[in-house]
């Protein structure tokens, strides 16, 4: 499983609301902008081989305001992976201690390895206004939604199981036994697609990437986000100053 990273809203920052000038509830006060200053958490899941990791990598390269939440894992680093960048690599004892301390907002056992997302790091980044993306399986996504019900969940589908198996074999990373396990797990994972907000079929990579980017962009255009960015301009226009 690729794993990387919803939460109680942050408390409102203190501030003095501007006086309105007859505009009533349409007024965009300072408190409004401060209350809305929270990042969006995007949760992305998919069966192994569906192309999730490649899509996420391309998405992050094209969206500088979106950050990948780095997960903890007990598996060994693969070639080219850097501790603290791709994952926080820890031993089983350290991972189990963090579980006992309730340090994870979600954690799961996937095949022979454990993965988890640190609660404190995730909450702090969102409260600082960062948009975060989590690569996790359906088990982790379910736990995240319990803690962060406002999270936006996206499931990446392969065009078919036949194509999924072909992609797994073309990677040349796994034995026939491991591929058989991954295919069995894929069928189980696919049964949970109904728990997600959005579905994207990765048939053609560029099309799937465009759909994923459009989805992220749309959330950046929500009223609350735009109020945060353009509150002063809106105030000025309502007051007839611009």
Automatic annotation (TrEMBL):
Cellular compartment(s): Cytoplasm
Magnesium is among the record's keywords: no
Pfam families: Guanylate_kin
Annotated ATP binding sites: 46-53
GO molecular function: ATP binding; GMP kinase activity
Record field: compositional bias (Polar residues): 1-24
EC numbers: 2.7.4.8
Reaction(s) catalysed (UniProt annotation): GMP + ATP = GDP + ADP
Chief subcellular location: cytoplasm
Domain Guanylate kinase-like: 39-217
Database matches in PANTHER family: GUANYLATE KINASE, GUANYLATE KINASE-RELATED
Name by which UniProt lists this protein: Guanylate kinase
Originating species: Thiorhodovibrio frisius
